[in-house]
Design a protein that fits this description.
324 residues, 2 domains, alpha+beta, single chain, 10 helices, five-stranded mixed beta sheet, Alpha-Beta Plaits
Length: 324
């Protein structure tokens, strides 16, 4: 095991360029190779930016990177990282652009990555070993509650191959460790966190904590993983939009309107289990009754002032008609 040393001391700086560069080098990016950096959150802001109403011209991006390096990109992305809506720092792990289907910019990659959800960091660290996977090319502590674990291939492969391999690795982690992984990272167009910036939720700087620099053949990854059944209705594919379209929308006309109902609904069918377990509803009610206003810490809560969104049917019911 080779544990990385952080050369740049922790400072009150927005972006540790040395740490970001180190991670990109481990992922086999030369300093003059093209890469799209990203400030993301409520939306995605890319650097270099795509010309309006045009596809990325990857040859131009490549030429500029060879000529100017990456310093200009780091400078420009920092300006977006100070904005609350785009305070996460990442990159696109595939060349060509940022869209896979709508503009067909991304056609290949060589990077495999997984991130475990909702497990202790100490349990995540050696999950690859428990699952019988090869030593990672590198691991990054996200600065919050997870590690991002990378295996880099020795050659580029089509998007379909890469996404299949990412899914196979996720399945191996689940089968051997019982850990769920973030399936959004299966997609090659998904922004992926890059070391060097402070995680806005965790408050720690993302950094490389394990490195080998190893690269692997496709055959090796196939050898240590198992076949998976591809879901024909998989809706993680890029459609050129920030949010995926609802593939099974609810027909509101098939359900009664709130004013047509004269019965009370138990809160446990109007709220998710998370909101019940953590007493969000009870706390909200107390705050609402005292102030008649929305709690500032719950801007995305399912409850909106005097109404509540029922998750399962997406129907709003009068707050005081609910059985509390």
């Amino acid at each position: 095991m080779v544990v990385s040393e952080v050369k740049t001391k922790e400072k009150e700086i927005l972006l540790d360029v040395n740490e970001a560069t180190k991670m990109l080098r481990l992922l086999q990016y030369k300093d003059s190779d093209p890469v799209i950096l990203c400030a993301y959150g409520q939306t995605n802001l890319y650097h270099p930016a795509r010309p309006k109403n045009e596809n990325y011209d990857w040859q131009t991006v490549t030429t500029l990177a060879a000529k100017n390096g990456r310093s200009g990109l780091f400078d420009s992305v920092q300006k977006d990282l100070v904005k609350p809506a785009t305070n996460n720092f990442g990159f696109i792990s595939s060349p060509g652009g940022v869209a896979k289907l709508s503009r067909k910019e991304i056609t290949k990659s060589r990077i495999l990555v997984y991130e475990i959800d909702d497990e202790e960091l100490i349990d995540q660290f050696d999950a690859w070993e428990v699952a019988g996977l090869p030593e990672p090319t590198c691991m990054m502590d996200s600065g919050n509650k997870s590690y991002h674990v990378y295996h880099v291939l020795d050659e580029y492969a089509d998007v379909e191959v890469i996404e299949n391999l990412r899914k196979r690795i996720s399945k191996k982690i689940f089968d051997y460790c019982g850990f769920n992984t973030d399936h959004s990272l299966h997609s090659c167009h998904q922004p992926t966190r890059l070391a060097g910036a402070i995680h806005p939720k965790g408050g720690r700087r993302a950094k490389v904590v394990y490195e080998t620099g190893n690269v692997y053949s496709i055959e090796k990854i196939l050898e240590v993983t198992e076949d998976i059944e591809e879901n024909e209705n998989d809706n993680t594919a890029d459609k050129g939009k920030l949010w995926r379209e609802d593939t099974n929308p609810i027909e509101l006309k098939n359900y009664p309107k709130p004013e047509e109902l004269n019965i009370k609904f138990p809160v446990d069918i109007a709220l998710s289990k998370k909101y019940i377990d953590k007493n969000y509803f009870k706390n909200y009610m107390q705050y609402f009754e005292a102030t008649n206003s929305m709690h500032p810490k719950w801007p995305n809560c399912l409850i909106f002032k005097d109404s509540i969104t029922r998750e399962t049917l997406k129907i709003k019911y009068d707050l005081y008609d609910l059985a509390v």
